[in-house]
Amino acid sequence: MRVKEPSQALPEKAKRSKRPAIPRDEDSSDDIAVGFTCQHVSHAISVNHVKKAIAENVWSVCSDCLKERRFCDGQPVLPSDIWLCLKCGFQGCGRNSESHHSLKHYKSLRTESHCVTISLSTWIIWCYECDEKLSTQCNKRVLAQTVDFLQKHVSKTQTSAFSRILKLCEEKCETGEKKKGRKGSSVPSVKGISNLGNTCFFNAVMQNLAQSYILMELMNENKENGTKLKIFPSPDTRLDPLTVELSSPGPLTSALLVFLHSMKETEKGPLSPKVLFNQLCQKAPRFKSFQQQDSQELLHYLLDAVRTEETKRIQASILKAFNNPTTKTADDDTRKKVKDLLSERSLY
């Protein structure tokens, strides 16, 4: 249901104009129908304010819901439908949620308009004043630039950042092993983990995983971008063995590997699990509330999410070996082969 403020409604001619449809670029991330020009874009968007807000706040979390700490059936209420104000960078739950903080933020009395917002899950752009979806193709360049920045921010935090951290972490581990020399101590190192706020349940799980050497060995086997993986199908499938080249691990898997390597460092002082915890919260928003949770449930969510990332990673590599970028472009025979090959690969 659309929400409009009668007092703020503008005449049809003043608030919008139509342009001829523009052919879509297949590589564009814009899924909105082209043709609508919003008159509020020029003064309702600030790239600098958005950048500053993103650097200071947790990504994709409604700050007002977090402050209210509301519960339902004993569970914290934290909506996953988060919208970001393109004027100030405020992140609030959508108007389909119970609290619709994003809409309340727009309605707050201000000297400047905060009417243009974007969904962090679907990248839909919306103007509350016009009550319309917006397209980057039919509005001022600042809109496209801001959306491009947000999408690149997500991409960087999920890929290259973790690869660079992983290399630095491994170098530190190697240096630490050299410093140990020939001490030959058989006592495993135990490192403290900082409490982010009622995250004892998370820290307890991570301390146990840090001492699970089999898990470390399995993750280290396929951690590198370009790692060769050979899959041996069962005779029933009548498929030949296939060697694929893996891409970089997913964001949660990379963060977990970085964290486990950091736990082996010899440097003193507790380790902050903030990066790993934030990545887990992206997969399981129920843990965003910084309330006490069940450790077994957290372990289940963590390992299941890592398994899902690795399955998608191997599936993408198999599709690439068959010259298909996605399952949508593959024919039925190729899809069956991919399914059979995936079922033969045992994932942690």
UniProtKB/TrEMBL annotation:
Assigned keywords, A-Z: Hydrolase, Metal-binding, Protease, Ubl conjugation pathway, Zinc, Zinc-finger
Domain of life: Eukaryota
GO process annotations (BP): protein deubiquitination; proteolysis
Lipoprotein keyword on record: no
Domain UBP-type: 36-153
Protein name, per record: ubiquitinyl hydrolase 1
Matches recorded under Gene3D superfamilies: Cysteine proteinases (3.90.70.10), Zinc/RING finger domain, C3HC4 (zinc finger) (3.30.40.10)
GO molecular function: cysteine-type deubiquitinase activity; zinc ion binding
A Pfam entry, by short name: zf-UBP
Domain USP: 191-348
Catalytic activity: Thiol-dependent hydrolysis of ester, thioester, amide, peptide and isopeptide bonds formed by the C-terminal Gly of ubiquitin (a 76-residue protein attached to proteins as an intracellular targeting signal)
